[in-house]
Amino acid sequence: MKRARKGFTLVEILIVVVILGILAAIVIPQFSQASTDSKKSSLRSNLQSIRAAIALYKIQHDDIIPADGAALTTALTTKTLKDGTAAGVGDVGFGPYIQVGVPSNPFTLGNQIGDAVAGNDWVYSPAADGSWEFGVGQGSVAGSTIDPASALWTEIQDY
């Protein structure tokens, strides 16, 4: 009688490992690109939400926007009067324009609106906290510590 085999040979195991390695080398870069694409999409969506809230605030407050990022954050997340001051309990006011809070920046995870360089519409953020930057002169919000020379930065500017 012949004995039955009870295992795999070293050659069979090596072939399986090589095949799995080749498959992993093909699949892993695809996941990396998908992650970046999802961050871009999330950044665009968050920028659109913040910009829409600022635009609505400007319309309801006679084209006046707060002078700095901290005041803008408060104005967008609380109820305000026509002059931009906080509304009291019985006051009829506007807002809040952002219900849950300022959306986070997917590249830096910051969710505060900070001040940008005065007069610049789109600026590179050197802030360590990765906050959104608010261009007071233009009334726009740009995101993050992305290199301004990169294609992604141009893509976000054009959005």
Outline:
The chain is mainly alpha-helical and 159 residues long. It has helices at residues 10-60, 69-77, 151-158, and strands spanning 113-115, 132-135, 140-142. The chain has one domain.
Structural class label = mainly alpha
Query: Would you count the extended β strands for me?
Result: 3
Q: Identify the overall geometry.
A: rod-shaped
Helix count, DSSP H or I runs of 4 or more residues: 3
What is the beta-strand fraction? 5-15%
- Mean pLDDT over the residues: 75
**Please, how many domains?**
1
Tell me the strand order in the biggest sheet.
1-2-3
C-alpha end-to-end distance? 76 Å
Largest sheet: 3 strands, mixed
Could you spell the SSE succession in H and E letters? HHEEEH
Helix content range of the residues, please?
Answer: 40-55%
Rg to the nearest angstrom?
Answer: 25 Å
Uncertain residue ranges? 118-128
Question: What structural keywords apply?
Answer:
mainly alpha, 3 helices, 6% strand, 159 residues, rod-shaped
What would you note in describing this structure?
The protein is mostly helical. It has one domain. Helix content is 43%, strand content 6%. It contains three helices and three strands; from the N terminus they run ααβββα. The chain has a three-stranded mixed sheet. The chain is rod-shaped and about 95 Å long. About 7% of the residues have low confidence.
